[in-house]
Amino acid sequence: MRNSGLYPKLAAQSIRNNRKFYFPYILALLGDVAAMYIMRALVNDPNAADIMPGRPNGYFYVKMFMGFGMVIAYLFSAIFVLYINGFLMKQRKKELGLYNILGMGKGHIAVVLVIETFIIGVLGIGGGMITGLVLHKLVSLILHKVMWMPVPFGFYICWDGMAQTAVLFAVLLAVTLLVNLNKVRVSKPIELLRGGNTGEREPKTKWLMTLLGVVTLGAGYYIAVTTKTGVEAIMMYFVAVFLVIVGTYCLFTAVSIFVLKALRRNKKFYYQTGHFIGVSGMLYRMKQNAVGLANICILCTMVMVMLSGTLSLYLGTEDMVQEQYPGDVNVWVYYVPDEEDPFNADAMLSVQVGYIESQGVAVSGVKTSRALSFGAGLLPDGSYTTNRFDDGSVGAIVDMTWITEDEYAAVTGGTLGLRPGEVAAYGVDGDTLTVHWVTPDENRELGTSTWQVAHKLKDNPHFTPDMVQLVTIVVPDEAAVHEVWRLQNRAYGQRASNMQWFAYLDLDCGEETLAALESGYTDAISDKSFYEGTGHWYSSSWDLRIDSEAEAYGLAGGFLFLGIFLGFVFLMATVLIIYYKQISEGYEDKDRFEIMQKVGLSRGEVRRSIHSQILMVFFMPIAVAAIHIVFDFNMVEKLLTMFMIHNSALTAMCTLGTVLVFFLVYGAVYLLTARMYYKIVER
Hints:
alpha+beta, 7-stranded mixed beta barrel
């Protein structure tokens, strides 16, 4: 009992004396806890669930994105905390060994570690809860603004979220404690005293791992640059990511050693003061450096990809909405062309315009079009099959849209002069277009149609709400479209597509009037005589652009917020991993540089050698990450087409801007790290 107060004092003193290591660790833990609580509070906030008039999916998006973010954030926090804990224990080995030599048993050291973990938990988890409570309202405001949703009033405390977050991170700290206790249990005092000074043997060049790295990285790059459609990108993205991650670890572990040994063989380069110290120091520590550098590279790539991709999606949302919903009011009608009482498009347009004008609203612009759309599979020879899941398909499922030359002229103002048997095509590579009419269930071919592609279109001439629109074909006249409809009707049977008629109406009114029009339209169509004279059709829809805009910004804003949120967490981890890595190595190099100064190395030479080493360590990961981004660009661009984002220039600008900003942040971290490292080794 006389020593009951000794252990808390030792634990507090240890944290205070090692504050250079513990303060960033506690700060990172605090940030992770705050982030987890904020996401939990955003999901559970009852005020947010009741403020969605006209935006039924807004709260759904909040729950979906924050729920996904919580899983990613916690898994990453677990990896990150365990990783940083390894650095902390490496620096504590001498201290713990000294305790043991001076008479403290391993049980007493365990008590000190338990108390230290408790103090860290109180500061990190408790501070994180307070920070989360303070920032929750601000983050909620930002989230709802970027998602175009009204901001909830009131201050909400999520008690369940606090309890769940506290338990999750308490379990995580308990795991780190068990790891630390096991290290103390299996270590001998002399090993603890010498643990920080244990050197690495010179690593051997690993040719098999080098080959594996080249193959996996090359395969990942090949998949990324050869992906042609958004569907392929979804199917293959995580395969490519996995291959690149494996390749990155292999290359940093094996190729880095090969490069360093090659530099050592270069006598003119190696036998310079700065290069000699940097290359030799890195070579003998490359086993531990390689994994750290690969982690930094992958984290940098993740941050830049997430931010550039979500920013491109958000900034391209306006173009996406305009493409899908060109009018303030957008009408879709689905019909069959061979009915005895055919659909009358002119009468339908008259009904729509008549209703709007009867409500005292002027129609300022009208656009109409017709189209036939159905799914098809792309075959290796460039032809298409109505059996979309054919074994010979290359994996691309496309939506083929057929329009007449008159429709093309109305949209673009251009003329094509198509003759029978000729088409103009968007999204077709070859000089001919071939479609195999195959029954999907029986895989029985009913025939083949081939057209000559007279014009290859650079821009899609057809507005469509379909997110997988890839191919648009312009045929000479309506009879040609109807013939295609009959052929696909035979192939698909009951699952055949109907013809589509579109009307896009621009109105001279505000959002409130549009909402009133939509409500009145729902009541008006309940009268069966409303559509009298329009002929036979199967279904119709009446959509406002403002509703679709809110829906689109809700989705894109949620992606952007999650990208920024997780990007910040990953960036914080990247900075701290670099910080701990350099500080840890600074203490390891301190004695080595002291010896070199005693034998004649000047302070200026020390500084130059330090910068040479840090430059190599620092800019290898970011250089490889930049290469990853270049190869990943095509796949990200194809993924964005699934959201109707076709603006390559916008995506390129967002990617370039994100990379430049990240490089500036990375450079600032470099200056900070170099300064800290130099202060340690020159003492």
